[in-house]
């Protein structure tokens, strides 16, 4: 029941957007799906056989010395990791993009650049770009589950590796949009151990496309789960579901999400969330966020956290953070506003003026 309401809501939105933007879309009309029916019949559906590793779901390793050219990891061959630049001394990040992403596309590229500006890392980009140019609706229920099985296979490959083993607890995974949901499912398929951290970057939309909440990203999926919400308002408030949930600028209506095709509506990566996270990696001032139980209190300005209650959102977040936090950003980069002044309330200033 709930599921069908969500579907109707989703279909309603896409229909409206088509009507509005029909005229602007002449050029793209050939290439892009124009109706929900097209989405059921897109070439982006995962081709069989459905086995991991899947030829169209690839794992590319990047290190500081191989920033431009990733090394393809083969989870069926231990030598592949042995002879790569993977170094167990470096922190390991696994990054899962959303619809329309890929290893050579922003924000995967920007995120790598930010990390390598900071130091040495093993960054593994899960590249399934050829599969998710457009979401294939007939597979949307199980495709993320399939992707999560392949990622679990990668995590097990790393933990049992004879030469360069890395325990899941030492791995930080970052997923945006549908990628965040995929990471929430990895736990179900791991042989043993638990992921150290999952950072979910605006997983809102996908929630509305499934009908099984037990498959959503939540705090049981890793030792520490932090979630950044920026587009929650588009399809309704979601969460809190992690150990720590961050609502940026109230958690909705970040500017810049394109809505001119059904694909962009579904894939809208809530364009601001990844730049916020990427900026947090090297920000000299930081995104200091204060606890506040709900949006209303935040909007009214009721929340006046103590200095000690503020936490740094993003990469450098303390794993002791618990609960719901709010943070306001600048409209243009640098987005981070630093630590709020002593008398400043945690409040909703108009962020885009
Ligand atoms: C799906 O696409 C194929 C090839 O483009 C076409 O022949 C077929 O009629 C389409 N099916 C539906 C249900 O649209
Ligand atoms: C890699 O090595 C581990 C430990 O020796 C072994 O259990 C595993 O089966 C090997 N994996 C592959 C793909 O050969
Ligand atoms: C929801 O997903 C879980 C895990 O995949 C499964 O065990 C459960 O049966 C599902 N529930 C429904 C209502 O489909």
Description:
The chain is of the alpha/beta class and 353 residues long. The chain has an 11-stranded mixed sheet, with helices on both faces. Strand 5, helix 6 and strand 6 form a beta-alpha-beta unit. Helix 5 packs across helix 6. The termini are far apart. The N terminus and C terminus are likely disordered. The protein binds 2-acetamido-2-deoxy-beta-D-glucopyranose (3 copies). One 2-acetamido-2-deoxy-beta-D-glucopyranose (NAG) binds next to loops. Belongs to the AB hydrolase superfamily. Lipase family. It is found in: Secreted.
Label the overall shape. Answer: globular
Q: Helices and strands: which structural class?
A: alpha/beta
Distance between the termini: 41 Å
| Proportion of residues in helical segments | 25-40%
InterPro entries: AB_hydrolase_fold, Lipase, Lipase_N, TAG_lipase
Signal peptide: 1-23
Keywords: Secreted, Signal
Organism: Parnassius mnemosyne
Summarize the structure.
The protein has 353 residues and is an alpha/beta fold. The protein is built from 10 helices and 11 strands. This is Lipase domain-containing protein.
Question: Strands, helices and their partners?
Answer:
Blueprint: H1 2-21, H2 36-40, E1 58-62, E2 71-73, H3 78-82, E3 92-96, H4 108-118, E4 122-127, H5 143-159, E5 171-176, H6 178-186, E6 197-201, H7 204-207, E7 224-229, E8 244-248, H8 262-267, H9 273-282, E9 287-291, H10 295-300, E10 311-313, E11 323-327
Parallel strand pairs: 3-4, 3-5, 5-6, 6-7, 7-8, 8-11
Antiparallel strand pairs: 1-2, 1-4, 9-10, 9-11
Bound molecules: 2-acetamido-2-deoxy-beta-D-glucopyranose (3 copies).
């Amino acid at each position: 029941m709930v599921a069908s309401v969500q579907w109707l809501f989703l279909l309603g939105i896409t229909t409206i957007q088509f009507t509005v933007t029909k005229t602007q879309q002449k050029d793209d009309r050939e290439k892009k799906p124009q109706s929900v029916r097209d989405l059921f019949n897109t070439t982006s559906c995962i081709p069989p056989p459905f086995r991991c590793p899947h030829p169209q779901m690839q794992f590319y390793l990047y290190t500081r010395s191989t920033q431009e050219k990733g090394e393809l990891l083969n989870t069926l061959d231990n030598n592949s990791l042995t002879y790569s630049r993977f170094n167990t001394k470096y922190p390991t990040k696994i990054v899962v993009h959303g619809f329309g992403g890929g290893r050579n596309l922003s924000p995967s590229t920007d995120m790598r650049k930010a990390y390598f500006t900071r130091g040495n890392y093993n960054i593994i980009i899960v590249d399934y770009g050829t599969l998710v140019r457009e979401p294939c609706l007939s597979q949307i229920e199980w495709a993320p589950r399939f992707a999560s099985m392949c990622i679990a296979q990668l995590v097990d490959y790393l933990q049992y590796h004879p030469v360069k083993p890395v325990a899941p607890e030492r791995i930080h995974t970052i997923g945006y949009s549908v990628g965040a949901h995929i990471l929430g499912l990895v736990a179900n398929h791991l042989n043993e151990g638990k992921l150290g951290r999952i950072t979910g970057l605006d997983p809102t939309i996908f929630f509305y496309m499934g009908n099984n909440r037990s498959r959503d990203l939540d705090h049981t999926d890793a030792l520490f789960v932090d979630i950044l919400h920026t587009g929650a308002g588009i399809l309704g408030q979601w969460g809190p579901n992690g150990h720590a949930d961050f609502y940026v600028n109230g958690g909705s209506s970040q500017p810049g999400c394109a809505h001119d095709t059904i694909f962009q509506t579904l894939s809208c990566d809530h364009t601001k969330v990844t730049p916020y996270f990427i900026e947090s990696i090297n920000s000299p001032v930081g995104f200091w966020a204060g606890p506040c139980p709900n949006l209303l209190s935040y909007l009214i300005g009721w929340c006046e956290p103590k200095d000690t209650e503020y936490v740094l959102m993003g990469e450098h977040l303390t794993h002791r953070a618990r609960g719901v936090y709010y943070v306001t950003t600048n409209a243009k980069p640098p987005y981070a506003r630093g630590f709020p002044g002593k008398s400043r309330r945690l409040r909703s200033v108009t962020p885009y003026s």
